[in-house]
Amino acid sequence: MNNTDFLIIGGGVIGLSIARVLKKRFSDSRVTLIEKEKGLGFHGSGRNSGVLHAGFYYSSDSLKAKFTRTGNQRLTEYCESRGLKINKCGKLVVAKNEEELQRFNELLERGKKNGVPLQCLTKAEAREIEPRVKTFEKALYSPSTATIDPLEVIMAMQKDAEDEGVDIHLGTGYLQAQGNRVSTSSGSYEARMVINAGGLYADKIAMDFGFSKKYRILPFKGLYLNSDEPPGSLRTNIYPVPNLRNPFLGTHFTVTVAGKTKIGPTALPALWREQYQGMKNLCWSEVLEILARQCGLFISSNFNFRALAFEEIRKRSRPHLAALASSLAEGVELSNYRTWGKPGIRAQLINIEERKLEMDFVIEGDQDSIHVLNAVSPAFTCALPFAEYVCDQVARHVS
Question: How many Cβ atoms from other residues are within 10 Å of residue 330's Cβ?
Answer without folding.
Answer: 11
